[in-house]
TrEMBL record:
UniProt-recorded name of the protein: YlxR family protein
Organism this protein belongs to: Candidatus Mediterraneibacter pullicola
Coiled coil spans: none
Residue intervals of the YlxR domain: 10-84
InterPro entries: YlxR (IPR037465), YlxR-like_sf (IPR035931), YlxR_dom (IPR007393)
Amino acid sequence: MAVKKKIPMRKCVGCGEMKPKKELMRILRMENGEFAVDADGKKNGRGAYICRSVECFRKAVKSRGLERSFKQEIPREVYDRLEKEMGEIGE
């Protein structure tokens, strides 16, 4: 009998859809308080998942989904830098 492998699911903070973890991108808050895009999902720190589309990122900014996930306010410069990083990785 074949064993079905469990696929980890995560919820996008932009659109709210549950998707397989590998289809989503992880936004990371490190111990020093800095934010970064964690493309491989292996770095240490608190993470929030988002679809690999700029539209979903903009929805997360508008609905403050990332701020709720990290339980803190995020400066505009950080959003701009994250959007630029997502654009580079998504291509």
